[in-house]
Amino acid sequence: MKLEISGLTFSYENKKILNGLDLSIREGEFVSLLGPSGCGKSTLLKLLTGVISPEGGQVFADGQRIRGITEHFAYMPQNDLLFPWKTILENVCLYGRIHGGLEQMKGEAMAQMGAFGLKGYENEYPSALSGGMRQRAAFLRTLLCHADILLLDEPFGALDVITRGEMQDWLLGVRDRMNRTVLLVTHDIDEAIYLSDRILILDPATGKTGSEIVITEAERSRDWLFRQGELRQRIYGEIMGGGKND
Ligand SMILES: Nc1ncnc2c1ncn2[C@@H]1O[C@H](COP(=O)(O)OP(=O)(O)OP(=O)(O)O)[C@@H](O)[C@H]1O
């Protein structure tokens, strides 16, 4: 599903956070949003999920204007938010339990357990799983709610650096199979380079997106990522410089 944002404006009290932000993401595209701390990245995701309302501007999903809370977005935060008293299968199928279709969702979940590295853990409780496994369970739960657009807010931010790298490798492996439009908020430049089709820098000075970096590499690997020093330096400079175009 294609996402278009036009002229989005939002303030907290008297502080303008977004000021006429325009953004367009193609169907199936993976876009990362980078920017200095406090520039409004999470605020943008909250506006899209409908948790808060914009002062101005419009959001379109496949050309259709949307407002408030809709079924188009699935949101995944940094914390896995699994219920400790529910098994992994019950946690993963939470939305089926709430919205109906539980039995069908259980079937889908069981079919995906292997790809998510959770086979054999369906009936375990979250406390028996590693941080990476819990985050993959949270990811599967997000995917099973069948929203077309995934909003990922630092989904691996709470993980140690090794597990985080493993999760990035895993996400890269399932990225194409997921076939979803993704907007990822991250502080991690390498994560953005490794996973994205396009990187956008949110500029706190303007409240809009500034620079845009397109990543065309099809065959990504850790070796390839480690060689991206120049690109890494450029993105860092643009974040620190407020994302201004040259
Ligand atoms: N509920 C709130 N009330 C008032 N100000 C807020 C509220 N939530 C966030 N802010 C402020 O709005 C600005 C943008 O916050 P936001 O969380 O969107 O930034 P961010 O880019 O996601 O930050 P980070 O990278 O540190 O997670 C910050 O200055 C923050 O202090």
UniProtKB/TrEMBL annotation:
<dbReference type="InterPro" id="IPR017871">
    <property type="entry name" value="ABC_transporter-like_CS"/>
</dbReference>
<keyword id="KW-0547">Nucleotide-binding</keyword>
<protein>
    <submittedName>
        <fullName>ABC transporter ATP-binding protein</fullName>
    </submittedName>
</protein>
<dbReference type="InterPro" id="IPR003593">
    <property type="entry name" value="AAA+_ATPase"/>
</dbReference>
<keyword id="KW-0067">ATP-binding</keyword>
<dbReference type="GO" id="GO:0005524">
    <property type="term" value="F:ATP binding"/>
</dbReference>
<dbReference type="InterPro" id="IPR050166">
    <property type="entry name" value="ABC_transporter_ATP-bind"/>
</dbReference>
<keyword id="KW-0813">Transport</keyword>
<dbReference type="InterPro" id="IPR003439">
    <property type="entry name" value="ABC_transporter-like_ATP-bd"/>
</dbReference>
<feature type="domain" description="ABC transporter">
    <location>
        <begin position="3"/>
        <end position="229"/>
    </location>
</feature>
<dbReference type="InterPro" id="IPR027417">
    <property type="entry name" value="P-loop_NTPase"/>
</dbReference>
<dbReference type="Pfam" id="PF00005">
    <property type="entry name" value="ABC_tran"/>
</dbReference>
